[in-house]
Q: What sequence folds into this?
């Protein structure tokens, strides 16, 4: 297994990294209290909850986080509309 900067992060360190990023804030910039649901050090996938919705991000080798998806209904509708618009183009 290739070792990356996030390979040795604990679950608590991974969630703290996300809380310090834009993913750790709501639309108005308020800090969210995130709870980790699953953390895989080999893939860099972290699934967490803010108490209402779940989200998944992937830790990248370059130190950034990549948004994978969430269970927020508004985001699901927005994604579906974007996909529909792309298919009509």
A:
């Amino acid at each position: 297994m290739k070792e990356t900067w996030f390979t040795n992060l604990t679950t608590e360190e991974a969630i703290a990294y996300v809380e310090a990023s834009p993913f750790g804030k709501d639309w108005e910039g308020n800090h969210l209290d995130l709870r980790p649901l699953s953390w895989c050090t080999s893939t860099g996938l972290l699934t967490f909850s803010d108490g209402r919705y779940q989200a998944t991000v992937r830790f990248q080798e370059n130190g950034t986080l990549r948004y994978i998806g969430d269970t927020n209904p508004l985001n699901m509708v927005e994604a579906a509309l974007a996909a529909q618009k792309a298919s009509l183009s």
